[in-house]
Amino acid sequence: MDSLGRRMAHRRKEIRISQKVLAEAAGVSSTMISRYETGQREPSITVLINIAKVLNTTSDILLGLEPRPDSIAQNRDEYNLLQNFRNLNILGQGKLLDYSSDLGDLPRYVEKRY
Q1: Quick one: pLDDT at residue 112?
Q2: Coil, helix or strand at residue 46
Q3: Domains of the chain, earliest start first
């Protein structure tokens, strides 16, 4: 079973930041980040929200809660992109899909997956 600490550590490593950088940005010590990640301590709600922002995800995802059925977004950027898409009319949505397809054809913009 995945824990809050494991999900935090996984996301932190995924975006390639150190415990020290996360700690400074979230307003806690690197020792506390280590304790959160090892399950020795649990962050307060305020700290959890700060950590989620720094990790570009949501507190729900860090807590292991199921995403809302109406959203496939895995982080704040995806959520914002989805919201922007939904706010466009059919013409704007078509343009956005064309742009994203064009970007996907350019190696410079494609994430390498191994």
Answers
A1: 74
A2: helix
A3: 4-63 (1.10.260.40), 76-109 (no CATH)
